[in-house]
Amino acid sequence: MSTKRSVQRSKAIGATTAAVLMLGGILLVAGCGNDKEGEPAASGSPAAGATAASSPKSNLPMAITASIYDRGTVPAEEGTYESNRWTKWMNEQSGVEVKWTPIPRSQEADKFNVLVASGQAPELITSYDRNMLSRFISQGVAQPIDEYIEKYSTSYKEYIKKHPELKPFVTFNGKTYGIASMRNTQAATMIWIRQDWLDKLGLKLPTTVDELVEVAKAFRDQDPDGNGKKDTTAIAMSNAYSAVLDDLFMARGGEWFVEDGKATLSFFTDRYKEALTLRKTLYSEGLVDKEYVTDKNWARQKQLWITGKAGILFDTFNNGPTVDFYKSQPDAKLTPLPPLSTKFGKNGYQEEVPNYLLTIFNKDMKNPEAAMKFVDWMLDKGWYNLSYGMEGTHYQLKNDIPVTLDTDKLKKEVSYASEYRIVHQQIMTPEFLLARAGSDPNDQKVQKAVGDAVTVAKSVKYRKDFPYTPAVDEFTDVSGQFQKKWDEIVTKVTMTPDLDAEWGVSQIRSEWEKLNGKAIDAKVQEWYEKNKADFK
After folding, report:
1. DSSP string, 195-259
2. Domain containing 337: what range?
3. Which of 329, 346, 363 is the last residue of a domain?
4. Global pTM?
5. What is the pLDDT of residues 489-532, one digit of tens each?
6. What is the CATH number of the domain that holds 393?
7. Is residue 177 part of a domain?
8. pLDDT at res. 37
């Protein structure tokens, strides 16, 4: 991609996107980047090709080590997370040699702790978890980077000025300790529903939790797929299931809320009891797959959804409609379900914080100049190809929009590449998504549905009393252990007929107090009082 083309593209896109709503960063819950989402930078972003100030006295090699989330999505023929077409391309194009350390997403904290303790942590440590990074900072693992930004950066220096909402997430004790990247949309979770099944059974779109349960029962009993068998599992799920269900009641498990001025864990609210009761109802009524507890990688749930054996999906805003789904269910019509009412009111879908990834600099980093050069290059050029692939191979430009040429090829060769984007300028609008789909009818359906979900996600405010997890070491120390305990209790309540939510909450409270929870409550309250003025 030439510098001239990049500058022209930035100007053109600035003109075409000025009139549409710009949405902040991804997902995936789960998380996290989707190779079919996004939009090039708007006018006014740092010019492609901008270079960081260079130190003529530096004789150190332009080389760094960095972490990368390992989600097991690199096809065998593409290589590994350490070595593939994109790691080679980045080394060639950026002028910085990067050695990548894969970090399993589900074992992130444990893996990083081992690497840090053994002195083998990468020089760039990237995570979504601000609290974990905060702990590394307090342990002296990380170093302030204000001087490096000022001395070596051009593009990131301007980027952070244009996105001041990112600063609180990388600022500790008045100093900058990390690189922050904006999100391409703040939408996260979503409930998807088969509109064609509703139409077939003469049902209306549910507007309350109680109506959702009734629709699920109809899907279970009334043969919506028309195969003459009672073999439908009404609700399929993903690793976002608990989050979506708890969020209906503004009571996500493990989150802190402000109740009458006091910092309170979600479990100890009346709202959480209702969430746990609903979870138990869905299980006992056979509205969810009773084997989900052993479906560790959610493969069975995905299969239920894709093959048309489920009519409701608790997932993310971009994972319900997929090309594979529409290939299997060509007549399906999906609707992102607007937020549902409960007796506590209506809560929006999860609204992610403004930042996407956060990256700290290891105190033992050998060449900070190389790290900042790589960050600036990623911001100027690298993110674009890691999002869309190569022009002429994976996309063609049409009105300065990277229109996908082959969705299967893109999925195989590019989908995993977005994990490497430490920073990016990708934005998302429903209009852009549909335009990018090109002529592929299944991809058109996908992008139209995802665009609708982005709009629905913005329709109702999501309750999030704390912008990020309280930076209280005592809480961080016990979080993993506590989560294992509450997961066990929630599962037991869900699957045991004579146990109810009241019993479950009492057991969770008991486990919390065993972990010195009352003292932690006081610490979190103290932290809240000191920091609440900064909450937006």
Report:
1. HHHHHHHT-PPP-BHHHHHHHHHHHHHS-TT-SSS----SEEE-TTHHHHHHHTTT--TT-EEEE
2. 189-346
3. 346
4. 0.76
5. 999 999 999 999 999 999 999 999 999 999 999 999 999 999 88
6. 3.40.190.10
7. yes
8. 32
Report d(CA 438, CA 478) in Å as an integer: 49
Same domain, 513 and 484: yes
Element (H, E) at 264: strand 262-265
- Cβ-based burial of 491 (10 A; exposed 0-12, middle 13-18, buried ≥19): middle
**b/e map of 194-222 (b: 16 or more CB within 10 Å)?**
bbbbbeebebeebeebeebbebbebbbee
On whether both 405 and 337 belong to a single domain, the answer is no
pLDDT of residue 26: 31
Q: What is the pLDDT of residues 346-373, one digit of tens each?
A: 999 998 778 889 999 999 999 999 999 9
Q: Give the C-alpha separation, 249 to 463, whole Å.
A: 10
Residue 463, classed as helix, strand or coil, is: coil
pLDDT value at 152 more than 50: yes
| Exposure letters 449-486 (e unless 16+ CB within 10 A, then b) | bbbbbbebbbebebbbebebbbbbebbbebbeebeebb
Please tell me whether residues 241 and 289 are part of one structural domain: yes
Name 462's Cβ contacts closer than 8 Å, sequence gap at least 6: 247, 347, 348, 349, 350, 351
Residues 230-251 have a mean pLDDT of 95
Cβ neighbours of residue 303 under 8 Å, at least 6 residues apart?
309
> Could you tell me which of 80, 155, 132 has the C-alpha nearest to residue 473?
132
Bridge pairing between strands 235-237 and 175-176? unpaired
Say whether pLDDT at 1 is over 60. no
Q: How confident is the model over 442-464, as a mean pLDDT? A: 93
Q: Give CA–CA dist 223/169, Å, rounded.
A: 49
Place of tokens 């195969």: 227
Domains held by the chain: number:
3
Token representation of residue 374: 């790589």
pLDDT for 380-417, tens place per residue? 999 999 999 999 999 999 989 999 999 999 999 999 99
| Cβ burial 155-171 (10 Å sphere, 16+ → b, else e) | bbbbbbeebeebebbbb
Q: What is the secondary structure of 520-536 as a DSSP string?
A: HHHHHHHHHHHHGGG--
Question: How confident is the model at residue 497, as a pLDDT?
Answer: 96
3-state secondary structure labels for all residues of 491-516: HHHHHCCCCCHHHHHHHHHHHHHHCC
User: Which residue, of 297, 312, 346, is where some domain finishes?
Assistant: 346
